[in-house]
Amino acid sequence: xxxxxxxxxxxxGHVGTMTPDQKELLKEMWAQIFSIADSNNTATxxxxxxxxxxxETASAGSETASVKSKTTTTKKSGGWFGTSKxxxxxxxxxxxxxxxxxxxxxxxVEQLRPALWNNILGDHPDSLLLRFLRARKWNVxxxxxxxxxxxxxxxxxxxxxxxxxxxxxxxxxxxxxRLQMELGKSFVHGNDKEGRPVVYINVRxxxxxxxxxxxxxxxxxxxxxxxxxxxxxxxETACLVFDMTGFGLANxxxxxxxxLVQCFEAYYPESLGxxxxxxxxxxxxxxxxxxxxxxxxxxxxxxRFTRSDKELxxxxxxxxxxxxxxxxxxxxxxxxxPVQAGENDRMKDAETKERLLEExxxxxxxxxxxxxxxxxxxxxxxxxxxxxxENERSSLAKELRVAYFKLDPYIRSRxxxxxxxxxxxxxxxxxxxxxxx
Length: 437
Prior knowledge:
This protein is α/β, with parallel strands linked by helices. It has helices at 20-42, 46-49, 102-105, 109-120, 125-135, 140-156, 159-164, 167-173, 177-183, 213-230, 254-267, 284-291, 297-300, 309-312, 350-376, 386-411, 416-419, and strands at residues 51-53, 70-71, 89-90, 99-101, 186-191, 197-202, 238-243, 272-278, 303-306. The longest helix has 27 residues, at 350-376. It is globular and about 65 Å long.
């Protein structure tokens, strides 16, 4: 089977909708991840053993990697996975053709598994890998390079800090962080007609000097990570509305635009459903000529320009659209509710946190073991039927989601969407929007 640089046929490429070829490429990506992760146990030189294919154009024609499942004991590794009482399964390392060591990317073997599962959160584990495969046109080697670079960025930029610290703590470290929320510069409200959460960005409120550049980046990541909680399966993308009303050149921030583009293209691929640039004034078009060449064609294809408020109702149902827009019926006005005393007390309960963490990790190891069996099921005589294993993986992914959201309040600070008058984020991981019509 030829792999790499293929398009995703409509209606395919997601959990539950993969073609047979796509399924085999997903298996290969899992196999490469296991090969790297297991190299800590099967090789003495992790720099040589922890490697992935490097050449992004030399991937066609190779066979799907094969990994044999078995159970073993292992030494503790770094990160919070290192305290696991459950022994992880190991696998024989699969040889690859042209390789680059993890050291070339800047990751260690010990960092790989925590980086992977800290990114998965409550999602189906396959969905994360599929995002990177679709973004790289099903070229497994390119997808691996891309996902590992994203993991490196998440570690370097300490994305876990944005999730674990309160807004007040982040504001104390990054000047102007909380100001973004107080102004209502960007917020999430409601779903569009495709079920995607809608992120509103009021560009006229942005003044580059009002906050440190790092504070703006951290706030952007905060919105991204909070928004992920509001994306409900099978939906996998968000709708962004850049409200350009009142925009002037004093609001323009080219460095921030570059950072945002990089986030969607490299760190959160396949997360953007549609980006609406609403009511752009004449002065914006000179700016657009500078920005447009920076955009990946896939991202650019998702941009839509709207001139009137009523055009927004073509994407967002009128009952869900704030009535500040002509045609909108939702009597919504954004209001920032500050951090409440005691809202993060559960994060101090180390005993409960450790118990829930161990329960979640046990399911994680079980999912990995089942995935190894899934990879091998067509290669080993007498293997269980593939559809049986797939059903078990699907059920286990649901258990993982339940276990993650039980753990969530013990490892993650509450946010605006937990403490609003009608909380959006529920304890079971669902999101519920309240509209005032």
